[in-house]
């Protein structure tokens, strides 16, 4: 059995080497692509080649679209399909490495199949965990935007009420948030500002901002601005105040959810602490009973 697992490992390594030799020149820029959570882009060409030959985007369009939508929300709309393929290649690379590692562990265990079984199980569970982590990042991004959007809207209302235009109000808000450009909301707003400075109309830049955020709350904000910003005056401020009230209620709901999640994470440490205290207090009592 040891020879069997050793031969399987050698076959997997040779196959990967052949695929890498065939595909490395086809994806010269993949090593420079950066995506949060991606670490194996340097060895991704073989898996990219397999995905391309399998035409996964055509055979599994729903699955591919869901992954692409999540990645586009995190990384932006540009090169969404390329980054989706890179993410899928990362999943396959981990699975391939775990299968190879399972063969190696089985070889070290003198032919025991449990080592390979462990690698095979992990090769299935790890891609699932990567997908769940991707979706959780999208959810955290949405929560961050909802938590910050009402506060930004209140500042815009005050500035517009003082006589500024919406563009001027957004620009003044961004000047005070230069140190928070990594925040999802402000990153997209800085992109909006760059588009306006590059020649886009404010309406076009605002529509692009809404499309990149891909959230109902942001769409409601941009719709309210586009419908009313030309009017100005009290009608515009009143429309923004109604929206602000709705967004503050959603912010309260998100804050409550985050608080409940934080308290639930403390349950396990508290239970462990309780068990430790019971052991520390109960052990001397049992020892005295034995005496």
TrEMBL record:
GO terms for cellular component: plasma membrane. The chain crosses the membrane at residues 6-23, 83-108, 114-131, 266-287. Residues 153-284 form the Type II secretion system protein GspF domain. It comes from Paenibacillus lentus. It is found in: Cell membrane. The keyword Ligase does not apply. Keywords: Cell membrane, Membrane, Transmembrane, Transmembrane helix. This is Type II secretion protein F. It is a multi-pass membrane protein. It holds the Pfam family T2SSF.
């Amino acid at each position: 059995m040891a020879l069997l697992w050793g031969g399987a490992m050698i076959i997997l390594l040779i196959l990967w080497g052949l695929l890498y030799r065939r595909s490395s020149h086809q994806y010269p820029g993949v090593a420079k692509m950066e995506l949060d959570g991606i670490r194996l882009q340097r060895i991704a060409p073989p898996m990219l080649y397999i995905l391309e030959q399998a035409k996964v985007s055509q055979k599994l369009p729903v699955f591919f679209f869901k992954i692409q939508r999540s990645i586009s929300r995190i990384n932006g709309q540009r090169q969404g399909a390329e980054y989706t393929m890179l993410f899928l290649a990362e999943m396959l690379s981990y699975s391939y490495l775990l299968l190879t590692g399972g063969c190696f562990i089985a070889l070290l265990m003198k032919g025991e199949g449990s080592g390979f079984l462990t690698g095979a199980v992990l090769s299935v569970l790890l891609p699932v965990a990567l997908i769940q982590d991707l979706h959780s990042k999208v959810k955290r991004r949405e929560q961050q935007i909802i938590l910050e959007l009402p506060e930004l809207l209140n500042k815009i209302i005050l500035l517009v009420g003082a006589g500024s235009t919406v563009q001027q109000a957004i620009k003044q808000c961004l000047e005070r948030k230069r140190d928070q450009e990594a925040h999802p909301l402000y990153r997209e707003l800085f992109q909006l500002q760059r588009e306006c400075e590059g020649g886009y109309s404010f309406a076009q830049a605002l529509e692009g901002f809404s499309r990149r955020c891909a959230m109902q709350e942001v769409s409601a904000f941009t719709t309210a601005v586009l419908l009313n910003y030309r009017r100005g005056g009290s009608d515009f401020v009143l429309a923004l105040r109604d929206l602000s009230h709705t967004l503050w209620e959603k912010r309260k709901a998100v804050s409550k959810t985050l608080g409940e999640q934080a308290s639930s994470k403390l349950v396990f440490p508290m239970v462990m602490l309780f068990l430790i205290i019971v052991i520390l207090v109960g052990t001397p009592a049992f020892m005295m009973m034995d005496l």
